[in-house]
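Hi support team,

I've been running sequence recovery on a batch of backbones for a student project. Most finish fine, but this one hangs at about 90% for roughly twenty minutes before it completes. I'm not sure whether the input is malformed or the queue is just slow. I've pasted the structure tokens below so you can try to reproduce it. Let me know if you need the job ID as well.

Thanks,
M.K.
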């Protein structure tokens, strides 16, 4: 299986399966002398870790990360990167492969098993194997490293829609994101989600969600105008996450209903002699290049395909049958996609930051005003 590596200058290669002994990744391209400890990574993995509430899979994985290479502790006692490959390992400790024994020869509707079988002639039915969302834990680990590369970078995400129910943006409060199990910035809607998802969960079904990622402190000038557009890289990164079926930048699909006067981000001169934008419909990217505004993107996550309701399918020998999936599954996989979305955006920005520095040699934009 090819294409297990993401990125160009900052890149990581992931390995492992849902029910294997471990998952992990090798991060390459990280500059030297950046402070990095397992605790720096663990704080992000803990946000994604399963089994923390009744609204996620009850698989009990501590997701404890180990740094096996690429760091060194000097005489000052500070552990820093060395510029060599950083190997990160997360052991699997709570596999229950027997839960999938009854469906090993059946294709789960909405799942990747059939497509894998068509392509490779073999598929790991135990939790989806390589196609499992279990793989996203190593993306979060790599993203923790990426966050340290761009000075002053902040990447935050929140769940802004569950099923058809959107948040009220007038109530947006970042402090609320860590106060509920949904990473929801609207405290009122978070309470509603509890009742709503309880009903979905108890019926054995699942529901989709929309996640919004906002990156601040992004320097202007990242990206290239043709085949390495910053928004194209972000869209590709988010679409690579399991169960993601749509991505938008800035106002996204809403721009189709706008006129030019509504969509254009007007500009005025700021106090520092640099231009400032009066709005951010473009999501912080123009012509594939960052403007220095906040990068704003959203992605849609489909309902978990593993549900208890019988669905029509076929088996590997061509027979028609029905199936339902036992085991431990997220009634809304979009919840744990929040830290994964943060990580992938951070990885893109770190990669683009290093590419920009390699090509142009400076990070501060060259302002033409007053010259």
């Amino acid at each position: 299986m090819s294409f297990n590596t993401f990125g160009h200058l900052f890149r990581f290669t992931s390995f492992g399966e849902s029910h294997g002994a471990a998952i992990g990744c090798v991060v390459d391209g990280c500059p030297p002398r950046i402070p990095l400890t397992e605790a720096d990574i663990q704080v992000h993995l803990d946000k994604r870790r399963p089994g923390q509430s009744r609204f996620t899979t009850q698989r009990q994985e501590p997701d404890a990360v180990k740094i096996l290479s690429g760091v060194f502790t000097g005489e000052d006692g500070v552990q820093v990167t060395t510029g060599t490959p950083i190997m990160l390992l997360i052991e699997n400790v709570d596999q229950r492969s027997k839960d999938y024994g009854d469906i090993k020869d059946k294709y789960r509707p909405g799942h990747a098993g059939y497509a894998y079988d068509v392509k490779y002639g073999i598929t790991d039915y135990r939790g989806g194997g390589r196609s499992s969302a279990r793989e996203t834990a190593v993306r979060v680990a790599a993203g923790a490293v990426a966050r340290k590369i761009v000075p002053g970078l902040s990447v935050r995400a929140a769940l802004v829609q569950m099923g058809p129910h959107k948040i009220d943006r007038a109530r947006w409060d970042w402090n609320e994101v860590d106060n509920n199990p949904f990473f929801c910035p609207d405290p009122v809607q978070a309470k509603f989600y509890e009742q709503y998802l309880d009903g979905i969960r108890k019926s054995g079904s699942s529901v989709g969600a929309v996640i919004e990622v906002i990156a601040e402190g992004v320097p202007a000038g990242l990206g290239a105008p043709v085949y390495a557009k910053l928004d194209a890289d972000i869209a590709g990164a988010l679409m690579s996450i399991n169960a993601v079926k749509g991505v938008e930048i800035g106002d996204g699909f809403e721009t189709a209903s706008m006129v030019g006067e509504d969509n254009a981000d007007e500009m005025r001169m700021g106090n520092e002699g640099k231009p400032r934008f009066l709005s951010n419909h473009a999501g912080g990217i123009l012509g594939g290049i960052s403007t220095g505004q906040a990068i704003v993107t959203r992605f849609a996550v489909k309902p978990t395909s593993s549900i208890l309701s019988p669905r029509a399918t076929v088996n590997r020998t061509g027979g028609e049958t029905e199936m339902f999936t036992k085991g431990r599954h997220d009634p809304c996989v979009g919840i744990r996609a929040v830290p994964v979305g943060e990580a992938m955006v951070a990885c893109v920005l770190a990669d683009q930051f290093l590419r920009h520095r390699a090509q142009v040699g400076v990070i501060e934009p060259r302002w033409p005003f007053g010259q």
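--
Follow-up from support: It reproduced on our side and the slowdown came from queue contention, not your input. Helices lie at 38-48, 113-120, 136-146, 187-202, 230-239, 260-263, 337-360. No action needed from you.
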